[in-house]
Amino acid sequence: ISKRLENFKASIFTHMSNLAVKHGAINLGQGFPNFDGPEFVKEAAIQAIKDGKNQYARGYGVPDLNLAIAERFKRDTGLVMDPEKEITITSGCTEAMAATILGLINPGDEVILFAPFYDSYKGNLSMAGAKTKGITLRPPDFGVPIDELKSTISKNTRAIILNTPHNPTGKMFTREELSTIASLCIENDVLVFTDEVYNKLAFEMDHISMASLPGMYERTVTLNSLGKTFSLTGWKIGWAIGPQHLTWGVRQAHAFITFSTSTPMQWAAATALRAPDSYYEELKRDYSAKKAILVEGLKAVGFTVHPSSGTFFVVVDHTPFGLAKDIEFCEYLIKEVGVAAIPTSVFYLNPEEGKDLVRFAFCKDEGTLRAAVERMKEKL
Ligand code: GLN
User: Fold this and answer.
1) Which atom of ligand 1 is nearest to the CA of 30?
2) Distance set, CA 2 to CA 5, 87, 118 (Å)
């Protein structure tokens, strides 16, 4: 294995899902819905395949999808983007982030990450040869430690990676936090790569896109995908939105990673993004109900549940149950209780910082959530 990847372990999501299958555990670990995406989107994909939309797509996207994303982004943020020059379709947001980092970061560049962070960011930064600096968000509110940010950011910083709503904590960056980060980025000439795949799962406050803050459009790449909003995580349709001078790097990297993304799924994605408002409202209503079941359940079981404003995750403190480390606790939970969760220590530069916290996902039907809570009530 190459030096740039030799220090990484196998994906925690795969590991926990495999263990869940082996022990017959209810999987509230890996974040994928156990229900299907909407019929009208599936029909659109079938139709596209039947219509012969099956050869390579244009490298930076099927034109109608570039357009649908620009329309959606305008409605969400007020920003008018050029679908042809400022939007690139990728194979999921994971590829969008990889292409953004590989296309815009030089070896030795300093990049700031907020911990806990989604695991692929660090892998991408290592592949790009970046120097990674971490700033830890701490419970209960996972607020941005402004003084620490000020002392970490400098003229040597090339980029900050943001994720809001935030996986794994469910934290949403407030306007005050984003404004402070923005002014530091402008002052120090820093780029922002912002993963907003959970933007439609915002329950307690409105989602704010960094790109919409004054002075930020020209230094921000906004990443999103279809998977979470349309319960189609296996389709792997994502995108990167940014000004032309940044898009150029993203497209060059994308051209050499995958070249282009699945054609019929892009056609169907364009149909999905034009869903009426009622679709998005219903999604949020359904998820609010699921969230309430899980959060109330976890509290009744005896966990300290940290507030989650968005995403389909919630993070809890497991230490009331007497085990020292998150990984140990998750293995016990799968083997002895029959429920899978995700240990968070793998999302920190210093794993010690995450040892008390585990993440549960509520992107499951209500019966599954209730059954998981019952198992924990009985056996924990
Ligand atoms: N994004 C999902 C999660 O956080 C799944 C990740 C994966 O399987 N790589 O759980």
Assistant:
1) 10
2) 6, 32, 22
